[in-house]
Every structure is written in structure tokens, then in C-alpha cells.
Amino acid sequence: MTAPPLRIGTRGSALALWQAERIRTRLAERGVTAELVIVRTSGDEGSPRPANYVEGKGLFTKELEDALMAGRIDAAVHSLKDVGATLPKGLVLAAFPEREDPRDAIVTRQGGRGGQDGLKGLPSGATVGTSSVRRIALVKAYRPDVQVVALRGNVTTRVNRVRNGELDAAVLAMAGLKRLDLAAGALPLEALEFVPAPGQGALGIEIRADDAATAAAIRPLDDPAVRMAVEAERSAMEALEGGCRVPLGALCLTVNGRSTLYLKMLELDGSSARTAQVVVDPRNPVASGVAAARALK
After folding, report:
1. CA nearest 203: which of 171, 173, 182, 183?
2. Which positions are catalytic?
3. Using CA atoms, how far apart are residues 229 and 288, in angstroms rounded to an integer?
4. Same fold, 1-98+202-222 and 104-188
5. Could you give the angle at which helices 224-241 and 285-296 cross, rounded to 10 degrees?
6. Which of 12, 104, 239, 249 is the most exposed place for a label (fewest CB within 10 A)?
7. pLDDT value at 49 more than 50
């Protein structure tokens, strides 16, 4: 008897569908049949939210997790930066299959050569779109003279708001821009200054903890190097914020076989920042993340 297709839950945005299709394809290469199930979430365009909202963990994941717990899907594919430090009881992150460029990037009206100065090149009073508390704080820290504007919608919508002149610039994840072929003219921001969100650029596949069959199908997609990095970043996040929305950046970089976790936490208005860095023990990245959080405190 043929096993039923594995049901992969995803949001309906272009980026979410790209990511879910990527996982479906990789499963198919291993002989696992899967189908996509679109689940509408609070983070989707058209969902009612205040005009001055800021994005937080869970905005793009709650409904997918509800569908998982209800048995309507077997796995959910997330942009890992959107997943909270603590998962709902009974759910686990079974695999971290790959990571794209983890940096933030600035998209300006000029793009290309005209945007190569990034934040520095913007005129005083320029409008910069973002709705991440971390990015808001970082922009205010580096350019307190610009105006930060709440920016919602999918990646294409956000880029288009800059291109059509509604905003002077927007700060987005480089990974999403690359995956949707929208990175032309975008300028990556220095990762150790504009420290990205924990898990940014990585994918996370969430399943029910007691679903052995799905776990066995998903497990071969896990990338040990990505797992080590994101476990260090996410454990630091859990130790520092416990699910609260705070301007926190965390990035684990490996150079010449040595992995280092960099943390940066800011005041909401960008007025001050604290930083820390620790060498990551690849045998226990979670403990390394906790140690980095202690050093930051």
C-alpha cells in the first residue's frame, strides 16, 4: 500500500511557497512524496493589524503550528527567524536543511551604484521602511536623523514600495531577496555591526514530536553545520528574551574551522547597545549560546 503524501504546511506568500517547494523537491529526490497545504497566517497581507505594528515571533507561525497540532498538516516550513524561542508543547524543529545569506540588506530607490552607500548615503529625513524591532533600533542607532516607517506586506510588495517612490529605502533579509531574485541593487549590511536576527537565512521544519514517520522522512535534510549555528543563536535568544520582543541580533560565524557567536542587544530607540562574543563548542552549541547570553548580561 502506497503511503499518503506528506502534507507540508506553508504560508501563501511567494517566499514561503518558494521555501516549501524547495523542501518538497528535496524530499522527492529521496523518494518521499509530498504536497503543499497553504495556511493563512496573521502575518499575511490583508490580515488586520494596526498601522504602526511591529513584527514579532509567532506572527507568521501560529496558524501553521495550530494546523500541525490539529493534524491537518504533517510538517511546517518556516523562515527560522520567525520562530519563537519556545515551541508549543508537542512540537519540535526536526531539521534545519539549509541557510542562505544571513545578512540584512538595504534597498534604495536608486539601487545598483546609487545605493552603494547604504544607510550612510541617505539624506537627512529620508524614509526607511521596516517593521522589525531589531532593524528599527539598528537604523535609529546608525541614522537617528532618518524617519523609520512601518512596512508590511510580502517581500515583493516591500521592494516595490521603494521602487515606486513611496519610501527612500527599506531594510529586508538578504536571503528572501536572493530566493526571489530581487537582490539586484540591494546592498548587504555589515553583519557584525547590523547583526541579523537569530536564525536569519535558515529554514526550519517543524513537526509533531510523536510523529516518527515524518521525522524519519525529514531527518536526512538536516544540515549539521546549520544546526550547530542556529542552535547557538536560538539558545542565546531564549536566555535573553524568553519570547519577548526585544532588539536582539545573534549570528554564529565559522572561519577556518573556528565558530564564534556574536550577540548585539539594543534599546528600542537605538540609544545604546551591548555586545558579546564567545567561541562555540560544536559539541554543545546550546551551552555556548547560554554562555554568550550571560556574557551579554
Report:
1. 173
2. 82
3. 10
4. yes
5. 40
6. 12
7. no
Ordered alpha helix ranges (H), 92-191: 133-142, 155-163, 174-179
Mean pLDDT taken over the chain: 91
Rg, Å, the chain Cα set? 19
Residue 244 pLDDT = 55
Contacts of 53 (CB under 8 A, 6+ apart): 131, 150, 152
In order of 72, 178, 207, 238, 268, the CA distances from 21 in angstroms are 18, 16, 17, 29, 36
- CA–CA gap between residue 39 and residue 163 (Å, rounded): 29
The yes/no answer on whether domain 1-98+202-222 falls in CATH 3.40.50.740 is no
Domain boundaries of the chain, sorted by first residue:
1-98+202-222, 104-188, 223-297
Distance CA 91, CA 68 (A): 8
Whether 249 contacts 134, CB under 8 Å: yes
Give me the numbers of helices (H) and strands (E) for the chain, helices first please: 8, 13
Amino acid (one-letter) located at 43: G
Q: Give this prediction's pTM.
A: 0.91
Query: How many other CB atoms are there within 10 angstroms of residue 129's CB atom?
Result: 25
pLDDT in tens, 241-281: 755 578 999 999 999 999 999 999 999 999 999 999 999 99
Alpha helices in 150-246 (DSSP H): 155-163, 174-179, 212-218, 224-241
Reply yes or no on whether the pLDDT at 56 is more than 80: no
> Which CATH number describes the domain made up of 104-188?
3.40.190.10
* pLDDT tens digits along 90-103: 999 999 999 999 99
